[in-house]
Amino acid sequence: MRYLRYVSEHKVRAVLPGAVDPVVPRLNGSVTVLPGVKVEVAHPGPGEDGDPGLLSERELERAIGRLERYDDILDLKEPELRRNWWIRFDLDMSERTMHEDSSLLPDDVAMFAGTDPRPGGRYGRETNLLLCGSIRHLRATAASGGRMGSDTGWFHEVILELTRREEEGVCVIPEFLEHLVPTRCANAMESAPYSVFRILDREYPPHTRGRLRGLASVLMDIDFREGRSRLVVATPLYVEAVPRRPPSKRWWKRKLPADRVHD
């Protein structure tokens, strides 16, 4: 069983046209997989109040299998990742819901942020990863991170526009994001994602994060020779939590004095 945190049903349907597998309700129980984190576990059954519910895990497995067979799924550390390319990630990440900086409305976007310490990209540096998507695709409740920060309005609009397009069945990201949401400030396309990542990285340090993995479609690969570290921005197909395994009995025997070890 996958401990799903986020699934884009629209992307799954795009990978598997005509998916007709039975759906599952949005909420039916929960299980704790990380300290302080409960993941909703859905069981087969009809949705409530006409809600068609979520695609089943079997459909997600089929979509993942199809991508693995027919698409090149790249490692996050690969250099010069291009828009719409699929990447695989597996690292400790913070997860929060957020809203546009000047908005008083509830949170409407989901964010995941983490750092892969392996040398990667064009210049062999660590790779920061920022995943963004709609709050409606969350499978478990995430704590609020509040405002996205100053001068991030364009980035917020891009996330909402991508969500709207997916709901209409268009899951291909345009070659130029400024054609998706016009902007007068070219620097906003790079500075806004960095700003959001810095907020999540600063306010939620590594010891507060859980291990997450999944697949995502690349929006941007920002990798300059000097200055800022590399940042890959992507929109997820799915994100799942990886439960922490308890220490093995053999490990405890190595740590305890010999006279305290009892089989």
In short:
The chain is 24% helix and 33% strand. With 263 residues, it is of the alpha+beta class.
Keywords:
263 residues, 5-stranded mixed barrel, 33% strand, alpha+beta
- Estimate percent helicity: 10-25%
The biggest beta sheet, please?
5 strands, mixed, barrel
For the termini, the CA-CA separation is 32 Å
- The H/E string reads EHEEEEHEEEEEHHHEEH
Radius of gyration: 20 Å
- Chain-averaged pLDDT: 80
The overall strand count is 12
Strand fraction? 25-35%
Task: Pick out the low-confidence regions.
Answer: 20-52
Strand order, largest beta sheet: 7-8-9-12-11
Shape: globular
> Total number of helical segments?
6
Structural class: alpha+beta
Describe the structure in your own words.
The protein has 6 helices and 12 strands. With 263 residues, it is an alpha+beta fold. The strands form 3 sheets. It has a 5-stranded mixed beta barrel with strand order 7-8-9-12-11. β8 and β9 form a beta hairpin. The longest helix has 16 residues, at 188-203. It is globular. 35% of the residues are buried.
